[in-house]
Specification:
It is an enzyme of class 3 (hydrolase). This is Polysaccharide deacetylase family protein. It comes from Pseudomonas farsensis. By secondary structure, this protein is α/β, with parallel strands linked by helices. It folds into two domains: about 120 residues, no CATH class; about 200 residues, Alpha-Beta Barrel (TIM Barrel). Helix content is about 45%, strand content about 10%. Strand 3, helix 9 and strand 4 form a beta-alpha-beta unit. Helix 2 packs across helix 5.
């Protein structure tokens, strides 16, 4: 009976996720200015905040049935959806306050917003008077944010039956919200690749750029890599966390504890100088009762809030454009790329070139990893 029930629960979980992933980006050429100064970063940021606020407001007008239909689900967890919406509004308000600081330099999208209520009101009527210079951006931006919001609300609607990065399970988990304004952390998952692959090229590129990031490695892939030769040089100057022994959900896997132990031991043995005590759960899925074990291993869950979606059909440039749009929206956060795939490096190259003069900063991996 227990086996049958477990199988049924698994099938229901799969059914809830049956709809295909919606990979969505935004063509940054539709924005008429380069983000090549701190003030112009703020202009674009204010615009994205208000555009997203508009679709967030629109989603609150949907009743439960309409929301269920829109997200393509049989049922939704309204409590989590409302909590995620509330947290999004709080982040938008904090972000807009930061973005307003340069209004004396450039007043575009600077409105008399002095409270959360003002922001909600302004967002609800946004796009009525943006001017002809920005008119070609308005509707494509609205479409992008509508699809991006659906992506996030769908994860919220399934939580905690299907856990994801959209919500924390406890205050001990990390995400990008604790960073300072304009600060971003680079993280990479799914590696390492075999020698000479995209993991090597990306790590070397970061060293040339005098940047660092956290590479969340899979234990079995690191084992295969070390069996073929030394691995110490691969992640020199970078940080290494763990993603488990295999790339599979750690929420229902009976061997999840052993997965963490084995991968942690492998990294600590092979890469002691690069190791940081962080676990990036594949698909963002982890157990609600796993905090005690995590503490015993001196590990913390490290989530992300800006997903490049470079593991799908988006081109490298489209993936980077998605990341930049979300950087403008949230103004801080943890970015996730896949170093196991070749698109990550050209996407990162485009992103660095496009933000070189924007006044943003890159969080040090060591400082973040041991904080």
């Amino acid at each position: 009976m227990r086996i049958a029930f477990a199988m049924l629960a698994g099938l229901l979980s799969l059914g809830a996720q049956a709809a295909p992933a919606d990979f969505v980006s935004f063509d940054r050429t539709l924005w008429p200015e380069q983000v090549d100064s701190p003030a112009l970063f703020d202009v674009a940021s204010r615009a994205e905040i208000l555009s997203f606020g508009r679709v967030l407001h629109e989603s609150e007008m949907l009743d439960e049935h309409a929301l269920t239909q829109r997200l393509g689900l049989r049922q939704v967890n309204l409590a989590v959806v409302r909590a995620v919406r509330a947290r999004m509004w709080q982040r938008l308000w904090s972000s807009y306050q930061q973005a307003q600081r340069s209004c004396e330099q450039d007043a575009s999208f600077c409105y008399p917003v002095e409270s959360m209520a003002d922001l909600r009101t302004q967002a609800a009527t946004f796009a009525a008077d943006v001017g002809t210079f920005y008119s070609g951006w308005v509707e494509p931006s609205h479409q992008f944010h509508s699809r991006y919001l659906d992506e996030q609300l769908r994860k919220a609607a399934l939580f905690p039956q299907t856990t994801s990065e959209v919500e924390k399970l406890s205050s001990h988990e990390r995400s990008g919200e604790e960073l300072n304004d304009r600060m971003f952390l680079l993280t990479f998952v799914g590696g390492p690749t075999p020698a000479g692959g995209s993991s090597d090229a990306l790590a070397e590129f970061l060293r040339r750029q005098k940047l660092d990031g956290i590479f969340f490695v899979l234990g079995n892939r690191l084992q295969q890599r070390r069996d073929a030769g030394p691995v110490a040089r691969l992640y020199a100057g970078q940080c290494v966390g763990i993603q488990g022994w295999e790339y599979r959900s750690h929420a229902q896997w009976q061997g999840w504890e052993d997965s963490l132990r084995r991968s942690q031991a492998r990294v600590q043995a092979d890469l002691p100088e690069q190791y940081v005590p962080l676990f990036r759960p594949p698909y963002g899925q982890r157990r609600s009762d796993g905090e005690g074990f995590m503490a015993s291993q001196h590990l913390r869950v490290s989530l992300w809030d800006i997903d490049a979606q470079d593991d799908g059909p988006l081109t490298a440039e489209a993936s980077a454009q998605r990341v930049l749009t979300l950087m403008l929206l949230w103004r801080k956060g943890v970015i996730q790329f896949h170093d196991s795939l070749p698109k990550a490096q050209p996407a990162l190259e485009w992103l660095l070139q496009s933000t070189a003069q924007s006044g943003i900063g890159w969080e040090g991996c060591r400082e973040y990893g041991v904080r």
